[in-house]
Amino acid sequence: MSTKGEDRFDSTEASPWMRPFVPRRFLSNGHLQTIVGNFLPRTHPLPEPESRFIEVEAATSAYGASFVLCDCHWQPANVRSERLTMVIVHGLEGSSSSPYVLGNAARAWTAGCNVVRMNLRSCGAGEHRCPSIYHAGRSEDVAFVMAEFARAYLIRSFALVGYSMGGNLVLKLAGELGGAPPPYLKAVVGVSPLMDLVASAAALHEPQNRLYESRFLGDLLKRFRRKVEFYPGLYSADGLNKIRTMRQFDEQVVAQYGGFASADDYYRRVASSNWVQDIAVPTLILHALDDPFIRMTPETRGKLHANSRVRLVETRHGGHCAFLSPEPGDAGFWAERTLLDFLLMTVEG
Do 335 and 34 contact (CB within 8 A), yes or no? Predict the structure, then answer.
């Protein structure tokens, strides 16, 4: 696969849903794409959601019953079960109200899809109903959400869309299911997915990325301190004031309360790169080579290219979860249009 030219593609180059990515003027830098994409104002023509709490951990567990909040936008009842349902999973310290979640939801809704904006454990407005913590390995939560809506609304067709850490979750689930996915899982998309946690965690601590690390860490510490207040019998704030890096947080909090031996054990065990060779549903992965802190190893890239069900598209520019373009048809957001076109053409033909 050649690295020359504006983009870097695999065999998807000739696909009708694929258009080359050209960054907006003055936004060919990965940091600028990432920062501007995070703060760019947007409009989201969505109806009011139906909010549903889905149980993802039983009351008999050590932490008690845990629920995730899903904000759902359904098509009319007479066509609901037949329409493609997009489940959107946000990234680290995001929520169902993150701009990229709302942007994808509005596009999919307008195209006639059902949309489920899924919050990870303790994220969004569901924090008070989830004593357990979230982390990059909770792929079973996505499976529970799909199964519940398939049961409740007889949904026949789901597509999973995950951004960053959410991308790791949906790709991990698809790989874990292997050749026996439920019949309603039709396709998966990962945008800037966190697939190699060891390499990406190291990149996040590089000097040029300390701003991102500081912001993530500050938000995570605030959330965990609230956790201690809500559930003092389960968690302790001891030592939190000494945490200065994401690795330290993952060592002291995620590993301790997530059931891992250490931060390194956590990074290795939950990485979707362990399972991508087993993905058996149509899958699209969008990754920018100038992403400031997401790293994809050569081994993972080789697994993706060896799997005929996976389509890896890598662009020279795009930053992290941004892909801001000047194209009017994209409404400025290339990844959102590309992934929706992929899903509609792949699932609905």
Answer: no
Question: Tens of pLDDT along 84-130?
Answer: 999 999 999 999 999 999 999 999 999 999 999 999 999 999 888 99
Looking up tokens 């998807």 gives 12
As a whole number of angstroms, the distance between CA 161 and CA 297 comes to 22
Sheet holding 283-288, edge to edge: 7-9, 310-315, 283-288, 185-191, 158-163, 85-89, 114-118, 66-73, 50-57
Tokens encoding 280: 């058996």
What values do phi and psi take at 215, rounded to 5? -70, -45
Segment 175-188 mean pLDDT: 97
Is-contact 341 17, C-beta < 8 A? Answer: yes
Helix axes 99-110, 334-347, angle to 10 degrees: 40
User: Model pTM?
Assistant: 0.94
Q: Are 99 and 128 in contact (CB under 8 A)?
A: no
Cα–Cα separations (whole angstroms), residue 301 to 29, 78, 100, 177, 295: 23, 43, 25, 20, 10
